[in-house]
Design a protein that fits this description.
CATH architecture: Roll
Number of domains: 1
Largest sheet: 6 strands, antiparallel
Number of helices: 5
Oligomer: single chain
CATH superfamily: Hotdog Thioesterase
Length: about 160
Amino acid sequence: MLVDEQRLAKQYSFMLKRLPMKTFMLWRMPAAALMGLRIDAVSSKQTVVSVPGGRRTQNPFGTMYWAVQGMAAELATAVVPTCISRSTSMKLRMFVVGTEATFGKKAYGRCNFACNDTHKVMDAFDESLSTGKSVNCDLTATGTDGDGKVVSEWVFRWNFLATEE
């Protein structure tokens, strides 16, 4: 796939800028903005999204609501495909077609959701472009608490379709 590496680097850089991303989230993803989701790291190797604990994100039992964890995990898997789609002249379609989650322990405080499968995204786009068909790609995001213990693990099945314009 033809990805402009300079544009990709600019997209990664944009994702890490707090004020522009907060504005973008308020406009395009208001629930994520209100929950306080933040992109802490993004590269072709790993994406990390964090979410604060506290009143905005807790359930009636005082732990982090599972849906907030899901938002952070989904964003962690979506950042790199979004950056790639903005860095190429190809037409790229992407959406989630399935998800599953497992929960390891109660989530308290700020939690980080890391996706280390980002290398799979480019392969999926390349396969889609060469076959002309949509491709499913499973991306995993693991949520950890401040002590580094796993609170939840999410697998999002993304469907990608790449076509030349």
